[in-house]
Amino acid sequence: MNKTVSIADLKTDQKIAGEAFVLKEFETKQSRVGKSYYNLKLGDKTGDILGKVWTENLSNCERGLAIGDIISASGYIQEYAGKPQFIVESMKKLIDAAPEEFLPVTSRDRSRMKQDLEDEITKIKNPYLKKLLDAYWPNPDNRDKFTNFPAAEYVHHAYVGGLLEHTWEMLKLSKPFFEIYPGLDWNLFFTGLFFHDIGKLEEYDIVGAAIVRTTPGKLVGHITQGIVLLHEMIEEIPDFPKSLRDKLFHLIISHQGSLEYGSPVVPMTLEALILSFVDTNSADMNQAIKHIEKGLHTGEEFTEYHKWLKRSFYQGDLINHSSDVD
């Protein structure tokens, strides 16, 4: 089934007839008078939209639907709290749609980003860190997941290839620090950068056509999962120095920069401080850029308020430039 309507193009009062979307959230709720209805979130490559199936339309919806299913939905778009909402009147699972057609994908060249990381791995001089990287990267399963997995479920780089893109951006952003400040340990820093979000390969999964958080991801979290993985790998490397292990672990557990953002400790080495800087830079820039791209169609000078970055962004020049080109 070919898509004819994208979420980014939906407008208030628009009728939707048998259009394909990904079922990203699906919850049964009870109204004040005790009637059941569904809360939904539907998605495609261009974004997400919240939706509802009211009580009178429940019988028009196929039973047994699950997160990640690609469904055919009919209904109409209405405005609610200033945002579009999809009132679904019927939906059923599709069996002739390819999941990859509904997942957002990095716009950067994954082959180029992967090659840049591989080039840096070959330059690592510390024999223990080189063994650690060589124990992980040549494994085809590890390399495939690292290249194709998202870096998040919602917040930043939440798309196919997102983890690779986030890591590559951090690599590029970190280079000036090592040009300006002498005496920093690039071998240690790069290894920490490479592995800083490795736990996200266990925290998230791609189910059908949806990015979901796994049960271990919810219970343990990616920082702890990353430390467990590295500990297991280090145990297989004879005589791996304890002090080197501790400094590498510190990079991983402090990379989110502060306790309020989920790091058990704050950065206490220069390398850890830089890692937290570039991690934040990459995440914030990605959120801002995607937020502006999402808001350009409104024609407004400023975007809607971004709840994570706590501001609106000026986009007037981009709107004006687009009009000039047209």
TrEMBL record:
Q: Which Pfam families match?
A: HD, tRNA_anti-codon
Q: Tell me the Gene Ontology biological-process terms attached to this UniProt entry.
A: rRNA 3'-end processing
Ranges for domain OB: 30-94
Superkingdom field: Bacteria
Q: Name one GO molecular function term.
A: nucleic acid binding
Q: Where is the HD domain?
A: 164-280
Which InterPro entries does the record match to this protein? HD/PDEase_dom, HD_domain, NA-bd_OB-fold, NA-bd_OB_tRNA, YhaM_exoribonuc/phosphodiest
Keyword set for this entry? Hydrolase
What protein name applies here? Answer: HD domain-containing protein
| Organism expressing this protein natively | candidate division WWE3 bacterium RIFCSPLOWO2_01_FULL_39_13
Q: What is the lineage of its organism?
A: Bacteria, Katanobacteria
